[in-house]
Amino acid sequence: MAHNQTVTIMIVEDEPLVLDLLRKMLGAAGYRILAASNSRHALEIVEGQKIELLISDVVMPGMPGTELAKQLKLLHPGLDFYSEALHAPYSSRKSARSPRISR
After folding, report:
1. Would you say 34 and 11 are in contact if contact means Cβ atoms under 8 Å apart?
2. CATH code of the domain covering residue 36
3. Residue 19 lies in a domain
4. Roughly what angle, to the nearest 10 degrees, separates helices 65-75 and 39-46?
5. Which structural domain, as residue segments, surrounds residue 32?
6. Quick one: how many helices (H) and strands (E) in the chain?
C-alpha cells in the first residue's frame, strides 16, 4: 500500500461508536476515510472513488461484509479487505477458552 496520506480506506460498521472510533483513529493517522453504516450505503459512497482498503464488519443487516468485499473487489481489483468482527454470539464466547497468561 502507498504512503498513508494517499491511501483511502472505506470503513463499514453498523455500530455507530465503533464506526466513529475507527474513523477518528485512522483519520488522525493521516488516512483518507470514507465511512458507511451499511453495505448499500458503502456501495453508493465508493462510486467514482478510488479505495485501497476496506475495513468492514462481517455481520450487518442486509448485505454481509464478505459479500460487500466481493462486489467492491470487482470495481477495485487491488482492494485489500480486513474483516472486523468485534463480538461473537454468547454461545461461542461461553465455550471459548481464554488464554492463560504466565507471570
Report:
1. yes
2. 3.40.50.2300
3. yes
4. 20
5. 8-86
6. 4, 4
